[in-house]
Protein 1
Amino acid sequence: WKTYTVARAHVSPCMPVLDIAGGTGDLARAFAKRAGPTGEVWLTDINTSMLRVGRDRLIDHGLLVPVAVCDAEKLPFPDQYFDLVTVAFGLRNMTRKDRALAEMRRVLKPGGKLMVLEFSRVARPIAPVYDWYSFNVLPWLGQKVAGDAHSYRYLAESIRMHPDQQTLADMMGKAGLSRVQYFNLTGGIVALHEGVNLG
């Protein structure tokens, strides 16, 4: 899913890129390699511990990027600064998604692109199996592997509360983004949404 996102991002040298809720730094690492030393890839997260993990992983790969603890609903960046803004598996946990999307659009240059990678609504034929797996197998695995069934149960519940593909596309449009489109991945388990700031 992240590999597909990176491929569609088309990051090139010199590009300023913002990765929101970047956590472990997977996307930021891939973007930093493509942006090169003349690029500017920011890794941000509201969770200091997660941000520290991501920063350390990037350093381990020989990449030094700016990092910032910040709330996606109040981004500490100037208007029209970035060519690309991404958020992977983070929008679902934001309380005011509309405000966060508007902030992401605000910091995009005219012609800049927002990419949202998130769990979404699965195709109807696989929904019963997916639901059974999510609420029975996933928490059980979480308990066995991580000793934490609750977090995995929360994951399943938060996915069901997140807007479906078309609803999120509409929200991005209302936030001022144009040419909004989405791509269902793995039968809609995950969807990649894209929108452009036309200024």
Protein 2
Amino acid sequence: MAIGTLGEKSLHAALKEWAAQPGDRFEVTVDGFVVDLMRGEELLEIQTRHLYAMKRKLARLLPQHPVRILHPIAQKKWIVRETAVGQPISRRQSPKHGRPGDAFQELVRLTDWLLHPNLTIELIFTQEEEIWRDDGQGSWRRKGWSLHDHRLLAVTGRLALADRSDFLALLPPDLSQPFTNRQLAAALPCRPALAQKITYTLRHIQALAVVGKDGRSYLHATQTD
């Protein structure tokens, strides 16, 4: 069966094509929901952002089916500017580099499901182009430029997250114990807001515990079985 891409953004369609293996079925309806790929009993979903949008689908599918969510993180990204009709204007490399810990921006919305025995979240590390168009549809802050699409250039790696140890492995290996959100943010490095999402998520799946306070900041330590 051919891969259906009607109405899909480029990144989603390209990742589905990259992930597909011989014998996979595409756009299959399972328990009332359309899934991107079906590989035997396993259901594969490409979710480039907004993992929280998967909640209803996961609630229906996980009790009966193994589900693998593929979520891309752009380790390298180029900003491409185009006219309103897609003519190229400029291309430059973004100074931002995605890291595995960035996944917690989305994982924090799925804390109730992360350790479900039928769920695996696979981080797909990519190189991408981010396409902006001068079409007058963007905000005044963007001077009318709007984000049109993301294009996949390459897949550079992958990392599966299925149990507590997998999620804990996203923390810096030299992180002192116990630690505050501020210390975690400095070690990654990342913004304090992301560090808060990381510790919230890991506490929710009982991979971290609050073991005290340092002034007004909570101290976190990894949980051992």
